[in-house]
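Entry, Tuesday afternoon. Goal for today is a structural model of the target with magnesium ion bound, before we commit to ordering more compound. Inputs were pasted exactly as handed over by J.K., no edits. I checked the ligand SMILES twice against the vendor sheet because last time a stereocentre got dropped in transcription.
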Amino acid sequence: MIAQLEATTVSKVQLEASEDELKKVNAEMLWEISQRERAQQQTTSALREKEVLLREIHHRVKDNLAIISSLLDLQMVQIKDAEALSLFKTTQGRVRSIALIHEHLYKSRDLGRVDFNEYLQTLLSQLLHSYVVDPDLITLNTDIPEVSLNLDTAIPCCLVIQELIANALKHAFPNGRSGEIEIALDDASPNFLLVVRDNGVGLPQALDFRNTESLGLQLVTTLVDQLDGSMELRNGAGTEWRIQFSEVKQRGNGVAQHD
Ligand SMILES: Nc1ncnc2c1ncn2[C@@H]1O[C@H](COP(=O)(O)OP(=O)(O)O)[C@@H](O)[C@H]1O
Ligand SMILES: [Mg+2]
């Protein structure tokens, strides 16, 4: 009887001890959960802050490029020479195309990628406007899938398009000649094929596009190299450029690299 009583008392003591232990573990767990929640909140707010800052940077870059474009405008008012004026205008077009990328970026949900289709539509209407194209004479067709490109790919790629379209608008249809310009992007991930084609007068026979005096095509070949891409010219009924490239890989530190 005494032994039974002793056993009950011992197990009661043991029970109380393990209950105390459980309470302690529970309290520790609750503390840990609250710590984790706090850390998560801090991470979320740091990420949000980083996003706001990045958006702000893209906004400022775009604004600064707009200032450069206005400075070029002011300078152009004083230029009487038609050739010099045309060089300034071309430079301004390049600055505007980059500004447009940053404008698209700060408005977009994904701050590191450019919605290519959307960007291109704006770029093309900007180019048509600056080259004062008669829509009855020149038709522009695009065939671009829904694709987004990272910044290190998008900037060279958009500058290449800007140069080739500007060339088609400027050189392919002289003396009121009518025709078509087409841009197509074939997304066979991880490779892209960009085709820019016009049915105009074609490149001058003697011109070696990899070795020009003029800056436009030099820029195009350099940018295609930068994309680690390849470029082919088909000079038949007009001019057709076929450019193959893949997306440039970006490291965390923002430095671009290829495989
Ligand atoms: N789509 C095109 N159609 C006809 N000629 C072109 C076309 N693209 C380029 N060219 C010719 O190639 C030359 C070099 O082009 P580019 O290097 O861009 O210099 P720029 O446009 O400043 O003249 C142009 O001057 C023009 O004669
Ligand atoms: Mg040019």
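Residues 1-111 form one domain.
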